[in-house]
Please model this.
Amino acid sequence: YQCMKLEDIYAQPAISFILTSLPTFTFGTVKPTKTIGTLTFSTPCPTVTVTTTKTQPPVTVTTTTSLLGTITLVKTLTVTQSCSSTIQTTTTPTTTTTKSSTTTPTQTTQTTQTTQTTQSPSTTKTPTTTTTATTTTSTLPCQSLQPEYPAGKNFTYKGVNIAGFEFGCKQDGTCTPPYSSPLDQKVDGCGQMKWFYSRGMNTFRLPIGWQYATPTLGGSFDPTNWGSYNKLMQCCLALPGAYCVVDIHNWARWNGAIIGQGMSDGPYIQLWQMIASYYASEPRVIFGLMNEPWKLSLSAWATTLQRVVNAIRPIAPRHVILLPGIEYAHADTFLSSGTAAALDAIINPDGTKNNLLFDLHQWLDKGNLGTSSVCVTNNIAVFTPVVNWLRCNKRKAFLSATGGGNAVSDNCMTFMCQQMNYLFSNSDVIVGYTGWAAGSYDTTYIYDETPMWTGTPWVDTPLVASCMYWP
Model:
């Protein structure tokens, strides 16, 4: 039926054609709805009255038009006629039309058409037929799912983790020395960053255990440990235009106690005031508030993060801050855990959300555990709803840890390149990444991204060479 013109309706030889030709509606732009009138015309039976309620003016609806909210289209066709035949039927066909594309999640429109015919037991039988076709689409929170910029806009941040100052730290928030300094001559973290930078990377995440920075809870920086960490930071800052991420690598804990839940969040807030003061004059330093929080109250954690933002902003009003959610900050639970909504409520003291990015991690092994070198997914199904939510809500995220094995049998070169290509095409909202991990790791580590020094130049691991450099 599809918004048929009046003359086409008149041209039909019998009302049965109209009843069996109701439309399968798909996506269209919402327009005002009104009744367009009552039509009377002749058929083999004496009189047919057709009343239609539809979207007006008529539009051609297609599966490629952007959806603006929920559309409900109702068509009611009432026919009264005198016939000598006996009619008593009830049919309920259901038609499903599916739209999909490479940049948007699949949307499904369902059209349910119900035809009921009743007839009075008299000499002149007068059946009354009522047909209702109702189309309801799923609700989307934004006007468009297309990228804000063309595919290939480019990542703002692209790089790798330079690990070592967090070695010895565990998921319970304990950190047992010694760490493995990436400044050691054998490791040469500064040389690694120079190599990655020369190949096009511009962002380096530098993890450190909280206890190494401040051995006493609520205390000042340890002169030796923090001094060494700052040397690594200065190597990063010496690279023109490079971004350098401070990452507190404690899983939202201090010696087993959850920040703001099993202990006061005061020392944690004080820590970030100290870090912000230390790097207040370095706008290329990014504040990664915490590595992989887990098994904690989301609402309490969001409250703590808000307090940290409130404490940082008077000191460093424009630095980028990375906000990590619960469930290890994994992208696959970013929406389902409530993290997206909770972190979206965090604001700067001036009421804006400028330079507040969501911190995400995602692995490619079975179960997203980050414990196997074997990759089994490209995570496109994981990231698709995330990027759509970010775009709809005008927010951005940073993938600060992702990785895989280097053996051909691990299948990671295929899956990681597919993942990164997808993120690259959605880099208006996934604005950057840092692979996990280089620095003090070596070839015995399943996610090793440390380049080998065999003379000039360095030699990248297979995964980095294949998938982790972008224009």
Observations:
- The first strand starts at residue 33 and ends at 41.
